[in-house]
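user: can you give me the structure for this one chain? tokens are fine.
assistant: on it. calling the predictor now.
[tool input]
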Amino acid sequence: MAEFKEISPDAPLGQKALNWVDNRFPLSKLFNEHMAEYYAPKNFNWWYIFGSLALLVLVIQIVTGIFLVMHYKPDANLAFASVEYIMRDVPWGWLIRYMHSTGASAFFIVVYLHMYRGLIYGSYRKPRELVWVFGCAIFLVLMAEAFMGYLLPWGQMSYWGAQVIVNLFSAIPFVGPDLALLIRGDFVVGDATLNRFFSFHVIAVPLVLLGLVVAHIIALHEVGSNNPDGVEIKGPGAPRDAHGHPVDGIPFHPYYSVHDIFGVSLFLMVFSAIVFFAPEFGGYFLEFNNFIPADPLVTPLHIAPVWYFTPFYSMLRAITSEMMYALIACVLLGALLGVAKAKLSLVMKGAVVGGAVVLVALMMAIDAKFWGVVAMGGAVIILFFLPWLDNSPVKSIRYRPNWNKWLYAVFVVNFLILGYLGVLPPSPVGERVSQVGTLFYFGFFLLMPWWSRLGEFKPVPNRINFKPH
């Protein structure tokens, strides 16, 4: 057992209380390890603020969710009315509900920006592979949390959106119908589905999400933060001062805690403006059909998920029977290139070609709807493998060939276009554009082992570049 630390009898009451706690719980030790004595690179820019904003929005969602649960009724006959009761009769209920609905969209905005920063600065590269994997797991769990919460208001779009998405699982061969039945708890989306989604949304998924967030932060603090230059400030050979601290680092507190507080202030201004003046945000944050009670007998003219799911929804809709021929051609071309370039034995080359033929036969035999589900899920799962797909000799985009910046810009524009098309009703032109966008999205990642090595790379400095403001 650790020895108790003594403190002067004349010490202030606050210090005595802190010493009493420290002797029984490592409060000061945890603060010092993760804040005051955690050295972060001194060249952080504004891209590095979205992690703390994501943590803030998570707290907002948990706190507002607790107050909403106090008045919400997870019953198909009462759910919509209970939401209206919260909006109209509960004191400040409208504010809590709008904070929660706006917070859902804000969560995805800051998470998308946080992930994009990791993409351009190579924050997923060694030794931060596990940090990235935990982050992708957070993103996946967050999608499940948002989807389940989307059903709870029991409006028209909630009901029919859930009906469409859950029915997609039935496209999985052999186990699909049983899996869809298990998720719904009934043969149609109904009271059983609402109760299941409520219990997962309120208890199970948040617990998993919190655990992953803690694991993400612990993994980050174990290996240290990346920076815009991609230079390791704590690695072997990195310069250190007389106290063993990185010369290119500064304590997270107070320097970056103040930096984050300023960023949080700006975020809360924008967040408050949306909550008070445009909580529906033109129907993107809260769809107008969701202010109509769910009616199983009346189908909306156009069913689409919330905006943060629409890029992946576009990829789902892009996989048609016609698109399958393009995918088959890609599989065969990839197999032929792999056989031609790889130094494999004749048996291995035959195995690769045989595997490609079997895959093509499966693609022809199974309905395109299933491959649409695979594309939608694969668009998220492929992010987990990013650390092993990138073969670039440098981390940061600052030292990569200039054309890489244009490639990343096209990737972002393509993702935004896919998101916009997912909001719109299906059309022949939109279908073609979404098919091209889907091919580009997957090509960006699957061809990364090849294109990430191309071009002339700039020399990476031994020390980080930093100019005081």
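assistant: here you go. The first strand starts at residue 39 and ends at 41. Residues 140 and 380 are 7 Å apart (CA to CA).
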